[in-house]
Design goal:
Strand content: under 5%
Helix content: 55-70%
Number of helices: 10
Structural class: mainly alpha
Distance between the termini: 41 Å
Radius of gyration: 22 Å
Largest sheet: 2 strands, antiparallel
């Protein structure tokens, strides 16, 4: 949608109506010839819906815990009851997720491959499977750009600006960030890279993003080759 809207502005269509949108989308398709993306199957859509719901429940639980810290008197009891209900709902959903993934040979094989990497736990693996179905089917540059961990140039003439990551799938990037925090401590492929970049004077955030991209590229290769992690 963002690309189509930018195309409309570049084509001089500043107004927005259904008729203009239809014309712009048609012209965008002819001019850009965008890559066709496969629609996820029913199993993939269900898995994604379950992971979305899990995130919603966790967000609600966090909100209620914050409210509990500020609540007084009789208001504390219903908040505690709601937190307990959310705990049970999250636990039940985790059981359903585990059952769904372990009873499907294809999902089970992919999850086992991802979890063989030190730093990837069940939640991170499931987020990758649900929100990044392209993992294992794209090259390293495309998968990094898709997630939003590929630095883009900002140069003009002799000026060399800072590289910045941009766009991508926030949910996957969040899961990748948490996995990288763990891998930076223990994983023999990620920890030395982080220490080397920091020692070379790179800002810690830059080193962190580099480690996230390294981790993503490794996971992509593991699923592509069907090979478990081997340090």
């Amino acid at each position: 949608p963002r690309q189509v809207r930018d195309f409309a502005k570049a084509s001089g269509f500043l107004a927005k109506t259904d008729a203009i949108d239809a014309r712009v989308i048609a012209q965008f398709g002819v001019a850009i010839d965008p890559q066709v993306t496969a629609v996820p199957g029913e199993d993939a859509q269900e898995l994604q819906a379950m992971m979305v719901r899990r995130g919603q429940l966790i967000a609600m639980r966090t909100q209620e815990k914050n409210r509990l810290a500020l609540a007084f008197g009789t208001m504390r009891k219903p908040i505690k009851e709601h937190i307990a209900w959310l705990d049970r709902a999250i636990e039940g959903l985790d059981i359903d997720l585990t059952h769904k993934l372990r009873t499907s040979p294809a999902w089970k094989a992919k999850e086992d491959l991802l979890r063989s990497f030190k730093g990837i736990g069940p939640v991170r693996a499931r987020t990758m499977l649900a929100d990044l179905p392209e993992l294992g089917s794209l090259n390293r540059k495309k998968i990094a750009a898709l997630v939003g961990v590929a630095p883009f140039n900002c140069d003009s003439g002799t000026f060399r600006g800072q590289r910045h990551i941009w766009g991508g799938r926030a949910q996957v990037r969040t899961a990748l960030y948490m996995a990288t925090l763990s891998a930076m401590q223990y994983n023999p492929a990620i920890a030395p890279l982080y220490r080397r970049l920091v020692a070379a004077g790179k800002p810690k955030k830059v080193a962190m993003v580099a480690c996230m991209r390294k981790l993503l590229v490794i996971l992509n290769a593991m699923l592509r080759d069907g090979a478990a992690w081997d340090a």
